[in-house]
Automatic annotation (TrEMBL):
GO terms for biological process: response to stress. GO terms for molecular function: DNA binding; DNA-binding transcription factor activity. Keywords: DNA-binding, Transcription, Transcription regulation. This is MarR family transcriptional regulator. Gene3D superfamilies: Winged helix-like DNA-binding domain superfamily/Winged helix DNA-binding domain (1.10.10.10). It comes from Acidovorax cavernicola. Residues 1-134 form the HTH marR-type domain.
Amino acid sequence: MDPLFFKLVRVVNLTARPFHERVGREHQLTLNEWRAMAVLATQPGLTATQVADLTGLDKMAVSRALAGLKRHQRVQRRGDPTDQRCSRLYLTAAGKALHATVGALGRQREAELFAGVDADELARLSATLDTLIRAVERAPDHGAADQTV
């Protein structure tokens, strides 16, 4: 039997590949750009560090994702009026429109993937994943490079 961590990584990889093939190419959007957009759509005005924390991506991956989004005019930076050292990130109109389009495709894909899974089982899985995320965030080495991947 495969270890739990391997199963989690495998699920992510199996769902990421179709994203790139079905959505990413068509919209010139990487998976990490999508992850950053998804967070900014629900929480506008985050800093890049906050995007990294909420997506679980390292700061360099977030930096590249934000550069790609900015290059395609999907995100904009605004100065923070209370702290001149940092900037806040917001989706542009183009970014919001793309988020709506890709979000709808994502919900459709999620429905396809989970069609054979009982609603109660999905609710338990969601709760278990929330618990796991909290546990990982509390771990003493949270944010350190993981050597087991």
